[in-house]
Amino acid sequence: MNRMFGDRKLGARSVDEITGSRRLRRMRKADWSRRLVQENRLSVDDLIWPIFVIEGENRREEIAAMPGVYRLTLDLAVKEVEEAAKLGIPAIATFPNIALERRDETGSHILDADNILNKASRAIRDAVPEIGIITDAALDPFTSHGHDGILRDGIIVNDETVAQIAEAAVLQAANGADVVAPSDMMDGRVGAIRDALDANGFQDVAIMSYATKFASAFYGPYREAVGTAGLLKGDKKTYYIDHANSDEAVREAEQDLAEGADMIMVKPGLPYLDIIRRLKDEFAVPTFAYQVSGEYAMIKAAGANGWIDAEKAMHESLLCLKRAGCDGILTYFAPDVARLLKAD
């Protein structure tokens, strides 16, 4: 018999007949059952914390577009990293803001063993030996034009850039880096870095390749943080991946793995969940995402305006990256998340 709801017929079949008695809400009915069948969990072991370092002492510079994130002199950075280690965060990723007078067309200051990036590695290694240190060999914080490579006659020259990046990677390893993570997207840089590290006795230093770094609009606040926002001439589309392309991203990851990458990264994170899933399914290697500055800034800004619950959005966004296939996530939220997880 048809049942009535108002003047509308609901049909003859019951819900049990429609579903075959497979009621998927059964395991959602209570907190205990939801916890019991939860497929993915976020833990402190999933977190890598990016930090920004500057010259000087006892100085903390606010980054306007990234509330709660600061550029730190080494004395303060070391204290923050000590706290991160106590929270259980496994690794940090360091990024420098280089004084303008030390930047040039070729980013030559990256080859100075006493640049702020290398000094940060030494200071952190001495004070917090248990934490992993990840450094970037890209040239953009060191160039006067804001590009990731050497600029000649309006062109980012690939092979000369690769040679310099490989030399910089050796210096970074010599100064305490555990992982070199080249973000420049030059062809052949992973293989060149691997060869250079091995030739200089750094066989145990790993490479985390920014295998799929997209030409994204989400990097803006980061460029403010490292001081390249007003310097960049043109764009980076001749070396970053078109955000419309996924097959190309797979080819990039495949090439970097063939050249010796130990881990691959997708950058940005949340807008590229499909890429993360494809790479994890295709290669089954350690896969990471960088929840970039624009992603962070959007959550913080919307939260500050009362439009979303920022804490819940933070956790959800990171868990979604895990669900997509990430083994770990670079995120500016790392200390906040670690504290929340510890409180649970």
Brief sketch in words of this structure:
This protein has helices at 15-19, 31-37, 74-86, 116-127, 158-174, 189-199, 220-225, 247-259, 273-283, 293-304, 310-324, 334-343; strands at 4-5, 8-9, 47-54, 60-62, 70-73, 91-96, 132-135, 150-152, 155-157, 179-180, 206-213, 263-267, 287-291, 328-331. With 344 residues, the chain is α/β, with parallel strands linked by helices.
If you had to describe this structure to a student in words, what would you say it looks like?
- This protein is an alpha/beta fold.
- It has one domain (44-343): Aldolase class I (TIM Barrel, Alpha-Beta Barrel), CATH 3.20.20.70.
- 38% of the residues lie in helices and 17% in strands.
- The protein has helices spanning 15-19, 31-37, 74-86, 116-127, 158-174, 189-199, 220-225, 247-259, 273-283, 293-304, 310-324, 334-343; strands at 4-5, 8-9, 47-54, 60-62, 70-73, 91-96, 132-135, 150-152, 155-157, 179-180, 206-213, 263-267, 287-291, 328-331.
- The strands form 3 sheets. It has an 8-stranded parallel beta barrel, surrounded by 9 helices.
- A hairpin with a 2-residue loop joins strand 1 and strand 2.
- Helix 8 packs across helix 9 and helix 10 (293-304) runs antiparallel to helix 11.
- The chain is globular.
- The chain starts with a strand and ends with a helix.
- The model has no long low-confidence stretch (mean pLDDT 94).
- Belongs to the ALAD family.
- Pathway: Porphyrin-containing compound metabolism; protoporphyrin-IX biosynthesis; coproporphyrinogen-III from 5-aminolevulinate: step 1/4.
- It comes from Nitratireductor mangrovi.
